[in-house]
């Protein structure tokens, strides 16, 4: 159906905003080419070192071996600048993992390590900072570097373009695992880390459909096209369902074990060290679920605000995303009420039902996340240290109620965008 004339009230910024979807159209917040699994010349030694260090990471520690590797590596920044973009991303991921291994040294992590500021291997540190700056990312591991560049799929060719729909459960696994499962050990820490990486890669793959449907809904709202708005919001509802079901399926307690996650997996992703040259400034947080792009896209499509404590942390987390992702989310936020306003003003009952169903599913996922997250944080009931990942929970203190409070604020912020009206709240 041809588009109707543009409504006089249509925001002038929407056409420019829609162009920001284009670099993310195929893969959403995953990298645009399948991660490379090998690197040329001396850089392959860095990839190989990840698995080689795994026994020491669960033993006496990795620092001595990493200092030896660093001395053999030397200054390779000029060589790294000659690599292709895909090779640079693979190298960025490898250096991020090795920096995290050095930062924590061994698991379980002793409490003193949270306050320690180690002297990192100089060549590795320089290479990592150079690559991070070139990609406009903070100099610590992020969701992008530790997870989204660290997977392989039986269905994809490394280094080649793909579509997020090709990223399916049963085919995805971690590319470079820094845990090992000793013979006779039933904890399977390598398998647990693999599942943790899979959880986010597969969820973000489903988030690509959220992105596509949201872009279609924005375009329909801009063009005052009711049939297109109805179709886009129904597609958005299906995509939000698929995304939230994916993460819930993998975070069942018998899949990713809360006791092992809390002690061996979660500290690996924290960073908790300040930016170099900024004494007393905010710490870099590391890879956090707050950096999951698909859920932020769903929030923006449905007009959910970012004024709660967790909402502000979500906005802050964009600094750890790639520049195209950051640009889209930041430009979209001032326009986040466009779709909702169109639904209320002229969208009709079909669009209202699809919008409300999408919002309900997002809210219900947050209720589920509150309950499951509380169990993960509670663990075995004993006090454990925790790395800082976005919400700045203090190490060594009970986190369950603090997490519940944060999630309740975010659930309320999500529910506030309902079309039902204040007299018809949804049950929490």
Automatic annotation (TrEMBL):
Annotated keywords: Iron, Metal-binding
InterPro entries given in the database record: Indolamine_dOase (IPR000898), Trp/Indoleamine_2_3_dOase-like (IPR037217)
Top-level taxon: Bacteria
Keyword Signal included in the entry's annotation: no
Pfam families (UniProt xref): IDO
N-terminal signal peptide: none
Residue stretches in coiled coil: none
Protein name as it appears in the record: Indoleamine 2,3-dioxygenase
Organism: Deinococcus depolymerans
């Amino acid at each position: 159906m041809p588009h109707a004339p543009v409504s006089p009230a249509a925001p002038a910024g929407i056409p420019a905003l829609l162009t920001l979807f284009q670099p993310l159209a195929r893969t959403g917040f995953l990298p645009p080419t399948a991660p490379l699994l090998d690197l040329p010349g001396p850089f392959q030694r860095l990839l190989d070192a990840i698995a080689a260090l795994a026994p020491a990471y669960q033993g006496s520690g990795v620092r001595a071996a990493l200092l030896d590797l660093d001395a053999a590596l030397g200054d390779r920044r000029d060589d790294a600048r000659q690599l292709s973009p895909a090779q640079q991303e693979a190298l960025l991921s490898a250096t991020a993992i090795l920096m995290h291994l050095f930062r924590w040294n061994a698991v379980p992590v002793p409490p003193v390590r949270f306050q320690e500021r180690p002297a990192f291997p100089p060549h590795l540190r320089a290479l990592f900072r150079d690559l991070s700056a070139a990609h406009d990312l903070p100099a610590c591991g992020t969701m992008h570097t530790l997870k989204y560049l660290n997977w392989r799929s039986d269905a994809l060719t490394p280094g080649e373009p793909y579509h997020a729909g090709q990223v399916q459960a049963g085919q995805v696994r971690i590319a470079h695992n820094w845990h090992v499962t000793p013979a006779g050990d039933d904890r399977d820490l390598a398998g647990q880390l693999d599942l943790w990486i899979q959880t986010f890669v597969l969820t973000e793959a489903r988030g690509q459909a959220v992105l596509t449907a949201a872009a279609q809904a924005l375009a329909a709202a801009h063009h005052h096209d009711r049939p297109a708005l109805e179709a886009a919001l129904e597609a958005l509802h299906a995509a939000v369902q698929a995304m939230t079901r994916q993460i819930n399926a993998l975070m069942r307690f018998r899949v990713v074990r809360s006791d092992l996650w809390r002690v061996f997996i979660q500290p690996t992703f924290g960073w908790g060290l300040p930016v170099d040259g900024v004494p007393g400034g905010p710490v870099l947080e590391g890879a956090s679920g707050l950096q999951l792009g698909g859920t932020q896209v769903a929030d923006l499509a449905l007009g959910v605000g970012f004024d709660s404590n967790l909402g502000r942390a979500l906005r802050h987390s964009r600094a750890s995303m790639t520049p195209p992702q950051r640009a889209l989310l930041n430009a979209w936020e001032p326009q986040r009420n466009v779709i909702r306003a169109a639904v209320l003003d002229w969208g009709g009952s079909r669009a209202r039902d699809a919008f409300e169903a999408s919002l309900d599913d997002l809210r219900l996922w947050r209720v589920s996340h509150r309950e499951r997250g509380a169990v993960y944080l509670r663990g075995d009931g004993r006090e454990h240290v925790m790395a800082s990942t976005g919400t700045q929970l203090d190490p060594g203190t009970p986190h369950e109620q603090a997490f519940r409070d944060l999630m309740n604020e975010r659930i309320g912020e999500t529910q506030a965008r309902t079309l039902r009206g204040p007299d018809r709240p949804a049950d929490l």
